[in-house]
Design a protein that fits this description.
By secondary structure, the chain is of the alpha/beta class. The protein has helices spanning 40-44, 56-59, 61-69, 83-92, 166-171, 190-196, 201-208, 227-235; strands at residues 2-7, 20-23, 27-31, 48-50, 77-81, 113-117, 123-126, 129-135, 143-148, 153-156, 176-182, 216-220, 244-245, 251-253.
Length: 254
């Protein structure tokens, strides 16, 4: 597996792109603004999109991707998410008011896009690659994803706050190599982090104390203008390995 970071910021501006990852050449994990940097040929090669949750910074490019290359497709693109998330997208995005419903274009029998509901704990196997939805705790129904090539695993937390349910899952992954955790706010905004169900460095430290697997830690979803402060506060935490800030175009090979 090769996972390329298309976007990992908590906002936009300059080179910042919101959350999106390209797995090999045919799978997206979330589809934030980073997807817009792909060529038309790269967009047309995408067969599957796995969505963590319905917030705009994670789904912004799905409608535009479908509109740009949908007519070139000979079979539907699969959109995976929990049933709750798919229903939000149906009601509020693909509702013929904000955007056409591509699950009915050109016909309901032969659509450009097909909704594929998944549940927490469910694994989708794609040509030797395992993608499993894992628990997340956010303001809307949400999941993270465990990506497993057989040789190694990467866990992406998605947007989440304190989340006891996920750590038994992570601690059971024997081939875990990489752990990508969101930390959206600095400690000075801890109240905002709690209200919006994100993490700040002190909350992240509490969460990592529950992790009993060795893995290289990467930090995503930092708010624009706060990245240096957030990373410094994480580095000051006792008892954790030095973290790395996720950056665009970083590639994980596992």
């Amino acid at each position: 597996m090769k996972l390329r970071v298309l976007g990992c910021s908590g906002g936009i501006g300059g080179a910042m792109r919101t959350t999106s990852f390209l797995l090999d050449s045919d799978v997206l994990i979330d589809a934030g603004t980073g997807v817009g940097d792909l060529s038309l040929a790269e967009l047309a090669a995408i067969e599957h999109i796995f969505v963590t949750h319905s917030h705009l910074d994670h789904i912004a490019c799905i409608p535009l991707l479908l509109d740009s290359v949908g007519v070139t497709r000979s079979h539907p693109l699969n959109l995976y998410a929990t049933g709750e998330t798919l229903e939000i997208l149906r009601q509020h995005i693909f509702n013929w008011k904000i955007w056409p419903d591509f699950s009915e274009i050109p016909t309901a029998l032969h659509p450009v896009m097909r909704y594929q509901p998944i549940s927490v704990g469910e694994t989708i196997n794609l040509n030797g690659r395992s993608i499993t939805a894992i628990p997340a705790h956010h303001t809307v129904p949400a999941v993270g994803y465990h990506l497993d090539s057989g040789r190694g695993s990467l866990v992406f937390s998605g947007d989440t706050t304190t989340n006891d349910a996920v750590w038994p899952v992570i601690n059971s992954i024997e081939n875990l190599r990489y752990l990508v955790m969101e930390t959206a706010f600095s400690n000075s905004d801890k109240n905002v982090a709690i209200l919006s169900r994100h993490l700040c460095p002190s909350l992240l430290g509490d969460e990592l104390a529950k992790c009993h697997r060795e893995a290289k830690l990467f930090i995503s979803h930092l708010k624009p203008g706060e990245a240096e402060q957030i990373m410094q506060e994480i580095e000051n935490l006792a008892g954790i390995s030095p973290p790395t800030m996720l950056v665009n175009n970083q590639i994980f090979d596992f």
